[in-house]
């Protein structure tokens, strides 16, 4: 197992730097990302469902839908879907990392418990760093999702992949030591 943070980073960087423009921009929406998100959510709740606005009661004419469709293009909605999908992948990566090591101290000979504690502490530290880095990517994606037409420059984020890989190697050495002790147990008893 080798974490692939650099692939995640490159993927997120590509998404955040992707430049898209509405076909016909609605200036007020471009200048206010909260208003833009409010309108986008309103479209989901009204289009094809209601003839009048649930908020103000105004008639929702075909002209208003056409104007909104030109602002919220297929390109912007595709990017939004890609962002949501990528956030899901990053969240999944965080979960899988937490489930990767299933070793318990009790599964090792007592003479190896101190070594287990040391390696386990390294694992927890490396895992915490890796998860923090993934969270930074998720924050960037959420910022872009909230303001879909604005590109974002991703900061340098520390890659803890090598630390994770090194701790996994340490766990494997510990397992080998435990297995060696099992095979030499009879000799040790003598």
Quick overview of this protein structure:
By secondary structure, the protein is mostly helical. It has helices at 5-17, 27-31, 33-46, 62-71, 74-100, 113-146, 161-183, 185-189. Helix 1 (5-17) runs antiparallel to helix 5 and helix 6 (113-146) packs antiparallel against helix 7 (161-183).
Describe the structure.
- The chain is mainly α.
- It has 8 helices and no strands.
- Helix 1 (5-17) packs antiparallel against helix 5 (74-100) and helix 5 runs antiparallel to helix 6 (113-146).
Keywords:
190 residues; mainly alpha
Structural class: mainly alpha
- What pattern of helices and strands is seen along the backbone? HHHHHHHH
Parts with pLDDT < 50 across at least 5 consecutive residues: none
**N-to-C terminal Cα separation, in Å?**
39 Å
What is the number of strand segments?
Answer: 0
Q: Helix content range of the residues, please?
A: 55-70%
Measured by DSSP, the beta-strand proportion falls in under 5%
Q: Give the overall silhouette.
A: elongated
Radius of gyration (CA) equals 26 Å
Overall pLDDT confidence? 88
H/I helix tally: 8
Largest sheet: none
């Amino acid at each position: 197992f080798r974490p692939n943070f650099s692939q995640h980073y490159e993927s997120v960087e590509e998404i955040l730097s992707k430049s898209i423009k509405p076909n016909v921009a609605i200036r007020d929406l471009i200048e206010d990302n909260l208003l833009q998100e409010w309108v986008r959510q309103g479209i989901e709740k009204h289009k094809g469902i209601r003839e009048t606005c649930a908020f103000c009661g105004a008639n929702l004419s075909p002209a208003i839908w056409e104007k909104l469709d030109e602002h919220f293009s297929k390109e912007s909605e595709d990017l939004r879907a890609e962002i949501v999908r990528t956030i899901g992948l990053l969240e999944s990566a965080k979960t899988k990392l937490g489930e990767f090591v299933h070793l318990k101290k009790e599964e090792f000979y007592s003479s190896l418990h101190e070594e287990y504690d040391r390696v386990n502490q390294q694992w927890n530290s490396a895992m915490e760093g890796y998860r923090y880095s993934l969270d930074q990517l998720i924050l960037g994606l959420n910022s872009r999702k909230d303001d879909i037409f604005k590109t974002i420059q991703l900061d340098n984020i520390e890659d803890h992949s090598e630390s994770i890989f090194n701790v996994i190697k340490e766990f494997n050495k510990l397992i080998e030591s435990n297995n060696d002790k099992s095979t030499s147990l009879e000799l040790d008893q003598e």
